[in-house]
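Re: weekly structure request thread

Next one in the queue (326 aa):
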Amino acid sequence: MLKGPLQKSEDGGSGAGGRRRASTAPGEPTAFDWLLLGAIVLIGGSSFAMIRTAVETLPPAAIMAGRLWVAAAVLYVLMRMKGRKFPPLLVATPGGPRAHRSWMSMAAVGIVGNTIPFFLFPWAQRHVESGLAGVYMAFMPIWTLGLAYFFAGEPLTRGKLIGFGLGLLGVLILMGPEAAEGIVSSSFVAQGAMLVATVCYAITAVLARRAPPVRPRTYAAGAILCAAIAATPTLIFTTIPADALTPAAVLSVIGLGVGPSGVGSLFIVMIIRRVGASFMALANYVTPVWAIGLGAVLFNETLATSVFVALAIILAGVFISQRRTA
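Done, posted below.
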């Protein structure tokens, strides 16, 4: 798995990708980047239904650890298929061995962006109205926009501000007045937990943007491995009843690991490296639309007119935010 535990100097990563420095400014989105964004939306939109199924019987800690270890295995296989290896754990310095810079970055992204929110969201969804999760996730692009401007050198244009504002408005319309009423009736502690989780996601997007130049497959695999290791001790304090491991719950955890936590994490790293954290964050506006549409297909739910109005507003916001003249 890992290369030798100690090397004399840091090269920033493994393979050819470890020797290249990432550009400081994000590039313009290409057709491939839009396809990646669409894939993130499709994969992410499915997570709400799987989490809802899993929390019916499994405790949040079990869902978190299970999906992360599944994702770590998937990403490790994808990494090795390209012949890549993890960077060394330690590097030699005049002051003695220290942790490799790449591993410090991957650990920060893994724990802040996966371990913490993957525990907070399933726990919070037990105590709040279901629509509130989508509302709070819509705040993540706003945090990302500000953090990327201050810490990742991404421009903050009028078009982005207008576009992201329209996206937030679209999500609020999509969730409807019931979600707004849920803010008053639901647990404020649980809502605070969801808010913290969205801030964690935003911080992670910026950390990934500023990460050492490690290849995306290697970086995603290392980050998720760190997240899985950090999540495992929580199982010591978690009781999992025998009847909690239902086929539906187990399949949901596996699905969360392969999809959103595994392949989804890889796509997120790729798109952040290519075009920046702000562009990737747009997925959080479109994902709730897909999640509701998927529910309509799977459970024969009726789509209200407000869904289509919200979709139009969200897409308008995405278009405005990405205009080159903005």
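The first helix runs from residue 31 to 45. The chain has 13 helices and three strands.
Next request, please.
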